[in-house]
C-alpha cells in the first residue's frame, strides 16, 4: 500500500508532478492519438480499397505497394522513421507525428479488412442490383456495403483495440503516453509494481469497454436481419 501511495499519490521528481496525474495526462495522449489515428486510418483504408478494386494499374500498384510496405515493417520503425526523418524538417509535434504514423499503419490493415468484407458478399447481389437499374456506385453504397459492414465490423473492432495498444510505443519519439508515464514514474520512484500494473489495468478497462460496446452494436445489427 505504501508503494502505491509513494508512486501514484505523492510528488515525484523536481517538477512536483503527482504520479496519478502524470498517468492521466498520458491516458489523454493515448486516447487522442488513437481516436484521430483511427479516423485517418479509416479514410486511408477506404481510399486504398477503392484504388485496389478500381482495376486500373496506376491506382492498384501504389495501393499494393503502400499496403505491402506498411504490413511488412513494424509500427515502431514506421513511427521513428516518420518523426526523425520524414517530418524532421517540418517541426511537427510528437502527438501529430504519432497520429500520422499510426493512421498510416492502420489504413493499410483497414483497407484489407474492407476489401475482404466486400468480396465476401455474394457476386449475385451486385448483378441483381445492376439488373434493377442501379449504377455500380449506387449498388455498392445501397446493397453491397451495408452487407459488407456486418462482415467487417468485428475485424474493425479488433483493429481499433490493436491500435490502442500499439500506441504504447509513442515513448520511442519522446511522447508521454500512458505507458511512457508509467515508465517515468518507475524511473523516479524505483517502484515497478504500482505504476506498471496501473497502466495494464487501464489498458484492460479500455479494451474491455470497447469490446463490450462493439458487441452491443453487433447485436443491434443482427436484430435488423
From TrEMBL:
Part of the binding-protein-dependent transport system for glutamine; probably responsible for the translocation of the substrate across the membrane. Residues 27-214 form the ABC transmembrane type-1 domain. This is Amino acid ABC transporter permease. Keywords: Amino-acid transport, Cell membrane, Membrane, Transmembrane, Transmembrane helix, Transport. Belongs to the binding-protein-dependent transport system permease family. HisMQ subfamily. NCBIfam families: HEQRo_perm_3TM. Pfam families: BPD_transp_1 (PF00528). PANTHER family: GLUTAMINE TRANSPORT SYSTEM PERMEASE PROTEIN GLNP, MEMBRANE COMPONENT OF AMINO ACID ABC TRANSPORTER. It is found in: Cell inner membrane; Cell membrane. It is a multi-pass membrane protein. Its main location: membrane. It comes from Enterovibrio qingdaonensis. Gene3D superfamilies: MetI-like (1.10.3720.10). The chain crosses the membrane at residues 29-51, 63-86, 193-214.
Amino acid at each position: 500500500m505504501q508503494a502505491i501511495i509513494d508512486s501514484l499519490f505523492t510528488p515525484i521528481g523536481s517538477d512536483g508532478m503527482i504520479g496519478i496525474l502524470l498517468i492521466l495526462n498520458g491516458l489523454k495522449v493515448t486516447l487522442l492519438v488513437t481516436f484521430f489515428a483511427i479516423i485517418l486510418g479509416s479514410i486511408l483504408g477506404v481510399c486504398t480499397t477503392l484504388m485496389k478494386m478500381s482495376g486500373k494499374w496506376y491506382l492498384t500498384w501504389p495501393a499494393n505497394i503502400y499496403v505491402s510496405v506498411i504490413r511488412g515493417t513494424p509500427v515502431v520503425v514506421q513511427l521513428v522513421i516518420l518523426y526523425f526523418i520524414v517530418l524532421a524538417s517540418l517541426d511537427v509535434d510528437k502527438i501529430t507525428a504519432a497520429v500520422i504514423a499510426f493512421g498510416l499503419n492502420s489504413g493499410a490493415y483497414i483497407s484489407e479488412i474492407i476489401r475482404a468484407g466486400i468480396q465476401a458478399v455474394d457476386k449475385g447481389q451486385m448483378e441483381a442490383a445492376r439488373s434493377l437499374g442501379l449504377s455500380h456506385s449506387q449498388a455498392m453504397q445501397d446493397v453491397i456495403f451495408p452487407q459488407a459492414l456486418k462482415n467487417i465490423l468485428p475485424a474493425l473492432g479488433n483493429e481499433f483495440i490493436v491500435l490502442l495498444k500499439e500506441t504504447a510505443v509513442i515513448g520511442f519519439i519522446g511522447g508521454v503516453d500512458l505507458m511512457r508515464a508509467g515508465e517515468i514514474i518507475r524511473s523516479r520512484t524505483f517502484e515497478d509494481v504500482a505504476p506498471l500494473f496501473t497502466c495494464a489495468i487501464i489498458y484492460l478497462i479500455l479494451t474491455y469497454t470497447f469490446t463490450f460496446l462493439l458487441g452491443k452494436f453487433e447485436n443491434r445489427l443482427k436484430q435488423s436481419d
